[in-house]
Amino acid sequence: MRGLLGKKIGMTQIFDSEGYLVPVTVFKAGPCFVTQVKTSQIDGYFSIQAGFEDVNEKHVNNPQFGHFKKANITPKKYLAEFKPVKNFEYKKGQMFSVSIFKKGEFVDIRGITKGRGFSGVMKRHGFGGGPKTHGQREHPRSPGSIGQASDPSRVFKGIKMAGQYGNKYKTVRNLEIVSINIENNLLLMKGAAPGANNSIVRITK
To answer: What is the pTM of this model?
Structure first.
């Protein structure tokens, strides 16, 4: 497998062999089970569908239940597709764990960022705000001028303004794997990753 589905546990810090403090993000990665092997002859492309985290059967409809029954595994809550490794034979029901990764390897983490709701320009875009004195009254965090003069008499598309912030997919690339705990399916990545604690992430090589 080229990756796994996992869950972000949170952040902490460890000390490396030279005594330097390293901030790390902890993930519970897998175990993931192969639910479907897609081929170009049947599906039009090659892909491996994997499932993560068990779900109660009463929350699965009949077509989904049959899909998991074909793979001879219990129903899974989350599904994702990964590119297959060449010359590797995949089988339905096959299990993959954090053992597919190695310490020192660099991976990409994709998840949904924390939702910030409707936010102003200072929080959303990093604006500096208005002057703190010289007649400033009730608009210290306003965006200021956003438009042109009488020509062209309109606001161009793409102007940075207040609005919905967060709650979008984001990928952080080349995070280094600092430590692997195979017994508990834990990965420790150097640095921060998108998403709130207990959110689902996609970890790919």
So the answer is: 0.81
